[in-house]
Write a structure and sequence with these properties.
Radius of gyration: 18 Å
Bound molecules: adenosine-5'-triphosphate
Strand content: 25-35%
CATH architecture of the largest domain: 3-Layer(aba) Sandwich
Structural class: alpha/beta
Number of helices: 8
Shape: globular
Distance between the termini: 40 Å
Number of strands: 9
CATH class of the largest domain: Alpha Beta
Oligomer: single chain
Low-confidence stretches: none
Number of domains: 2
Order of helices and strands: EEEHEHEHHHEHEHEEH
CATH topology of the largest domain: Rossmann fold
Largest sheet: 6 strands, mixed
Length: about 260
């Protein structure tokens, strides 16, 4: 099994006007190729910080972190991952196709390759035919799918997603969760996914990382026994509910630490 992301005793402390904030403390985690890893925990437990450290957007203050065996900086330069933010962040004056093309243009991709990539990724997120539409002509869920398509444009092996569906209603979210699993199965990407939702984490993941704040740390890592193929009604099975229960217990323990 290939380890794609490896954190050893990782620390990250922000220096603020109110003193140091220990956002990550002693984080040890191995993420293997093809894993779907969810990070769940209360606000401030360092989920986003960890994702940003992987993406070289924050600098760890201790320990080691490698991405595809490289430093996060080298991994960023070799375009090892795509990043999806909570808000879709599409440019309103650019069409969906032009939004997806933008990172490719910046990197100087040949024009012919670009057209083909845009078609491919739109197909992956089921937005065929929307290339010429503007973001405001799409629903919130479709915009978020377009932003996933943009993150897939480079065909990076790793997809980092920071609460991509947090602002969407439950029905749309269920639908996108199903589609994301299908995309993951088709592409065999390694996915790091931040969420506040227990059912979402359990439904999507092969590995669930439960975190706790002050200092931000990992309190439980659950390797999911659920099969890769997951219809939505798997959420009513005893196996699913058992994992959800373990996550809830882990979160509760983390909270007790604060009292
Ligand atoms: N740029 C920054 N400067 C100073 N402190 C920061 C910075 N970014 C995050 N923090 C602090 O680090 C801690 C971890 O923040 P982080 O955003 O990683 O948590 P999170 O688990 O993603 O939270 P949420 O669920 O609210 O997004 C918090 O206490 C936060 O206030």
């Amino acid at each position: 099994m290939t380890t794609v992301i490896q954190a050893n005793n990782l620390d990250l402390t922000y220096q603020t006007n109110d003193g140091p904030v220990h956002a990550l403390k002693g984080v040890d985690l191995d993420i293997n190729k093809g894993d779907f890893v969810s990070f769940i925990g209360p606000s401030g437990c360092g989920k986003t910080t960890f994702l940003r450290a992987i993406a070289d957007l924050e600098q760890p203050t201790g320990g080691t972190l490698t991405v595809n065996g490289m430093t996060p900086e080298q991994a960023r330069q070799s375009r090892a991952y795509g990043y999806v933010f909570q808000a879709a962040g599409l440019y309103p004056w650019r069409t969906i196709g032009d939004n997806i093309r933008l990172p490719l243009e910046i990197m100087g991709y040949p024009k012919s390759d670009m057209a083909q990539r845009v078609t491919e990724v739109l197909e992956l997120v089921h937005l065929e035919g929307f290339e010429k539409k503007f973001p405001w002509q799409l629903s919130g869920g479709m915009q978020q799918r377009a932003s996933i398509a943009r993150a897939l444009a480079f065909d990076a092996d790793i997809l980092l997603m920071d609460e991509p569906f947090g602002a969407l209603d439950e029905i749309v979210r269920d639908h996108l969760n199903e589609q994301l699993l299908e995309l993951w199965a088709r592409t065999n990407k390694t996915i790091g996914f931040v969420t506040h939702s227990i059912p979402e984490a359990v439904y999507l993941s092969t590995k669930i990382v439960v975190m706790s704040p002050r200092p931000g740390r990992i309190t439980d890592i659950i390797d999911s026994p659920l099969p890769k193929e997951r219809p939505l009604d798997i959420r009513d099975t005893p196996e699913f509910l058992e994992i959800a229960h373990r996550v809830r217990e882990g979160l509760r323990e983390g909270h007790a630490y604060d009292d």
